[in-house]
Structure formats: C-alpha cells, structure tokens
Design a protein that fits this description.
alpha+beta, Rossmann fold, Dna Ligase, domain 1, D-amino Acid Aminotransferase, Chain A, domain 1, 5 domains, 8-stranded antiparallel sheet, 8-stranded antiparallel β-barrel, 17 helices, 39 strands
C-alpha cells in the first residue's frame, strides 16, 4: 500500500485542501484540470498538473478513463477522489484497484453497499441501527408503493434509492398526492442517478439533521470523532454546519456514536465516512444514510478535535492503524461553517457566473477559509457554485457564531453575485442564535423566499464616489505630475455631472461633483458628501459624520462594492449610451464577462435595429443584447450556456446599408 505520489481527482477548494496536506506529508501531488480551470489555485499548488478536457464534467472530472490515464501517465500510486464527482462511484474505486493503485477511501464493495438506500437500510436494520419506519422492498409498482404507504401513514417521504442531495425526494402529505410524487421522483432519480428505484419513509417533521464522523482502518479499528449538526438546509442542501450539536448530551452522543460505529462495521468499512441521522424533539434518532467519503463540512470536526482528517485518510490508505482510540478523542470548543456560493439568493438562488475581480478571505483568530478561487479566474457555469467554506471556532458557540458573522462580512469576493448577505442573515436569526434550528428553519424565516436587500442611497453614493475618484486618478496618471495641493482646484465652481446608473434591473439618475476632500453625490433626492481614504486593500468612506469600511473594484464603467455582508454593483451608463450593446457596424461583442442565457436569432435571419439578439447574464443582471443595425445575420458565434469574456464576438450582422 505504500505510495509516494497521489493524484487528486477533483477541483476547487477540496483539491487544494488535499494537495496541501499531501505535500505537508512529503508526498508528490498531481492535479487534474480542464480548460475552464486552467487558472484555478489547485493547478498551481500541485507538483504536476494534467489536462483532462475542456470543461463539461461528463468529459473531464466524471470521465474515469481520463482520470486513470492521468494517474498512470504521472506515476501516481494513489488517487484521492475528494467529494462529489467520482468519490462514491464503486466502479471507479474498483477500476483504481484493478489498475494497481490505491483508492483513498473505502473499497468498492462498501461504497456499493451504502450507495443504495434500500439495501443500506436493510443492512442497518439487521445491524440493530435505528431506522425510520418505511418500505425498501424490491416491488416498485405504484400498487405496492400505495399499499406500503397506507401501512406507514402520512406524511411520508419518497426517496431515490440510489441518490442523495435532495434529488428524487418528495414530501407527500396526503394519499391523493402519492401517485404524482412517485412519477416525479422516479423521473428525477433516473436522470440524476441512472436508477428509478424508490423507497418510502415515515416523514419526521422538522427534525435535526445530525451526522457522525467515523473512521476505520484495515486492522479492525473503528471510532467516531463526534457529531455535526447540519439542520440548516434549503431544499435538502446544507447551508450551515456546526460541531458539536447544540442539544447533544454525553449520553446521547455515546448512543448515536455507537450506532454510527455499528453501521461502519456492518460493511467492513475503511477510511473516512459519515453516518447521518434524523434526531427528533424527543431524543429519538433514525439512520438516514452513510456517505462513503469525506464531507464538505469536515473542517468543523477538524477544528474541535485538532485533527487533520485528510492526513488520517492518507495514513489509513497506506495501511497504518488509527492513531487514536475512542477514549482518546477530545472535543474542544465549538465550530461553525457556512458555504460561500456564486448564486443570487434574492433571485431564486440562481447560480451566477463571472470573473473573480477581487478575492480577500477573512483572517484572524479562530477563522479558517478553505477556498478554490483566485483573482483573475472566471466562475464557470460547468461546476457546482460553491467557491469557499468559511469556518470559525471559539471556546463557546456564541463566540464561534459572532466570529463567523464577522468572517462572512470580511471575506470579500467581487465580480459575481454571492450569497454573503444571506449567510450573515441566517447566522443572525434568533432561532439559530439560540441553538434551536431544525430543518424547517429557513422555510419559516423566509416563507416567500429570501428577499435580499438593495443598497441604500448612501451606499450608492459611495459607489459613485469610487467611480468618480477612479476616473480622476486615471486622468491624472495620463496627464503627468499634478501637485497634491492642486487636486480638485478650479478658479470656477465645478458644476455637478448628471449620471444614469444601472443597479440590478433598475436605472436611476444621480448627480456627482467635487468638493473639498471628496465628492458631492445626489441620489434619490438626497445629497451626500463622500470622502474616500485608502485603508488596506479597500477604503474608509466618510459620509457626513458616519464612516464605513468598504472594498471596491472598478471594471470599465462598473464598480463592485462590498460593505458589511452586502455585495452589489453599479454601472454608469455614460452620456449618450443605452443599457444595451451599441456596436460599430454589425459586429456585436460581449460588453462584459457573462453567461449566454439565450440566443434569439440564427444565421440568415433578418433583424431590425434594436431587436434582441441574445440575453447575457452578468453583474447580477440579465442584459438584452440588441442589434446595432438593421440587416441579415451573417454568423452566430455563441450558444446558450456559453461563458464569455468581455469583447468576445457574439454575432455578426451584414447591415442593410453595406449590403446595398
């Protein structure tokens, strides 16, 4: 089992995370990457990097053949799958073993056993692990499901036997809704997992989602490293994770931990795994599933135990025994983690794309940020929108929570929409602060969906001041030396400029002019005197008597601003411009980086000036790309779902005047 080179078959923050630990252990590391990830941090961190495709996951990170070829070609003796992608693919684990390499994880048999919810549940019942009453039989007809549902009682859950992550899952509250739920769950499960097998379970209403980190070696040792509470979820996707569980007692931990260890022993497990339970208000708990890999939320366990779980994975894969016995495990303090996503919570949590113009992760005592991004990189539409994990630790839960709120505000990513404000608001909910969150928390907090928050006029004024100061400094740099005491001086009063601003879907007017030591900005009927002083990587903005620390980035006519947890962009529509793409002649290019949402024309089509040609999503907005001239479409260079850089050619029009 000895190896000195390990290939990480993943990307983003988990690839970087694994590479750092492997290098610290003295191992040579190999990264795999796509063209879309060519500038990703994990590529530079590794000793060697191997290209595996253009971008789509099916032709790269999910292509077992390409991963194995990369491992052979680089001389890797082991493959670490991270999480997601091929990490729970039993066929891949088997192929790695057959290729003479070590799969850093459980063997294929254990992955397959726990990968099917129906089979896993039958095994857990046989092992004496408490399970939710339900049906996991082989008969899958609607009739069999209906009879089973009548015995279980409503409400109940319909679940994909082969899946997870909320796909192929439906809550059914009434008998007359069962048939439709079965049909939809089968269709979703077949598309997501290649199997339409379903199970039924009694619905445990608003439980806590509590999971135990287990570890096993090849010498018969199995222990747990405590629990994590992952109850704060949106559509069965985890949002906040913490360790330990706020309502855990030592007696309950011993009982649930023993059940988790029994679950791992039932499949002769090896490596890191997570046994997930539902915990109801009475203290009763039920087996949910076992994830046969490292979890996204493993850092909270690391922070309360002081252990490096990736190092443990590698040492177990090399044949070593676990370094601790169960009685040696100690939990210190409290840790909480949130996931920073490229998404717009106020717009239905739609994934966002765009450039990473600025990235400044939080630092300081008790704070850890695991990220897989860097400035200059583009957020690709091909992959999961998770960009980073922000974790805080403290001697008490309240200190960990307040540290994490600060860390969320201070972890600034500019260039694309993120869920920063949403995360800060979740952590500030009274129910969460009191440690009383269940899986129904977010639905109760925002039953109509997360509303978001628009920037107030004062913050818009700060953004305009940043644009004005940037324009002035750029002009001065081109003009040559101007004495500091002459900046802003004029023998005549400087008249304010009128500006049109695009903020989200809104266009507003404002005025901007200089005054001593700053800018006078008029927005929404109010006038703000704003002065900006460089402070670290950002600004200290004074607005009247108030001050704010802000981070800003100017890109063309747009400014991206971060203040507190709020992130927003303001685009200045320059004099004579319209909020559309106005091009010279008939050559239409992308006005900014973005994702093509739709294309409305094809080659040969006749268009009038101003007709919509395509829709580009960028800067939290959907931009109508309009025809600059009337004519015939000569060529279309883009397609729906394509990620574009600013200036990329989109469409060519043979304009009518030229044609004549």
């Amino acid at each position: 089992m000895a190896f000195d080179t390990i290939l990480v078959a993943n990307r983003g923050e988990i690839a970087a995370r694994v590479i750092r630990t492997a290098r610290a252990m003295g191992l040579r590391t190999v990264a795999v990457y796509t063209s879309a990830d060519a500038r990703a941090p994990h590529v530079d961190l590794a000793d060697e990097s191997v290209w595996i495709g253009e971008g789509p996951v099916g032709e790269s990170y999910l292509d077992a053949g390409r991963i194995l070829d990369a491992a052979r070609g680089s001389g890797a003796g082991a493959i670490h799958p991270g999480y997601g992608f091929l990490s729970e693919n039993a066929d891949f684990a088997q192929a790695v073993a057959e290729a003479g390499m070590v799969f850093v994880g459980p063997d294929a048999r254990a992955i397959a056993a726990m990968g099917n919810k129906a089979g896993a549940k039958r095994m857990m019942i046989a092992a004496g692990v408490p399970c939710v009453p339900g049906y996991e039989g082989a008969e899958q007809s609607d009739g069999a499901m209906t009879r089973a549902a009548e015995q279980i009682g409503f409400p109940l859950m319909v679940k994909a036997a082969a899946g997870g992550g909320g796909r192929g899952m439906r809550l059914v509250e009434r008998p007359d809704a069962l048939a439709q739920a079965l049909a939809r769950a089968r269709s979703e499960a077949l598309g997501a997992f290649g199997s339409d097998e379903l199970i039924l379970e009694k619905a445990i209403i608003e439980p806590r989602h509590v999971e135990f980190q287990v570890f096993a070696d090849a010498h018969g040792n199995v222990i747990h490293l405590g629990e994590r509470d992952c109850s704060v979820q949106r559509r069965h996707q985890k949002v906040v994770e913490e360790a330990p569980c706020p309502v855990m007692t030592s007696e309950l931990r011993a009982e649930m931990g023993a059940a988790a260890v029994a679950a791992a022993r039932a499949v002769d497990y090896r490596g890191a795994g997570t046994v997930e339970f539902l915990l109801d208000a009475s203290g009763a708990f039920y087996f949910l599933e076992m994830n046969t890999r490292l979890q996204v939320e493993h850092p909270v366990t690391e922070m309360v135990t002081g252990l490096d779980l990736v190092e443990w994975q590698i040492r177990v894969a090399q044949g070593e025994a676990l370094p601790l016995a169960q009685d040696d495990v100690r939990l210190d303090g409290h840790a909480i983690e949130v996931r920073l996503y490229a998404e717009d919570p106020a717009n239905g949590y739609l994934p966002a794309t765009g450039p990473v113009l600025r990235w400044q992760p939080a630092t300081g005592g008790g704070v850890r940020v695991d990220a897989g991004i860097d400035e200059g990189q583009d957020i690709s539409p091909h992959y999961d929108p998770m960009l980073a994990k922000i974790i805080a630790h403290g001697p008490t839960r309240e200190m960990a929570r307040t540290r994490l709120i600060r860390a969320v505000k201070e972890s600034v990513l500019l260039g694309t929409a993120t869920n920063s404000a949403f995360l800060a608001d979740v952590l500030a909910l009274p129910e969460f602060a009191a440690g009383m969150a269940t899986t129904g928390l977010l639905a109760r907090a925002w039953p109509e969906g997360y509303p978001g928050a628009a920037p107030d006029p004062a913050m818009v004024a700060v953004a305009v001041a940043v644009l004005m100061q940037h324009d002035r400094d750029t002009a001065l740099a081109l003009a040559g030396h101007v004495a500091a005491d002459q900046l802003g001086w004029s023998s005549a009063r400087v008249l304010p400029r009128g500006l049109m601003l695009a903020i989200g879907d809104d266009v507003i007017s404002c005025s901007a002019g200089a005054f001593v030591d700053g800018w006078r900005i008029g927005v929404a009927g109010e006038t703000f005197n704003v002065s900006l002083t460089a402070r670290g990587a950002g600004f200290r903005a004074r607005i009247g008597e108030a001050t704010h620390d802000v981070m800003a980035h100017v890109e063309g006519d747009a400014v991206f601003l971060a203040v507190g947890a709020l992130r927003f962009s303001v685009r200045c529509l320059r004099s004579g411009a319209r909020d559309e793409t106005v091009q010279a002649g008939g050559r239409v290019t992308a006005p900014m980086p973005g994702l093509v949402q739709s294309v409305a024309v094809g080659p040969g089509a006749q268009v009038a000036k101003g007709d919509t040609l395509a829709v580009l999503e960028a800067m939290k907005m959907q931009h109508q790309i309009a025809a600059p001239v009337a004519g015939r479409i000569r060529a279309v260079h883009v397609k729906t779902g394509q990620s574009l850089a600013a200036g990329d050619i989109m469409i060519e029009i043979e304009d009518e005047e030229t044609a004549e």
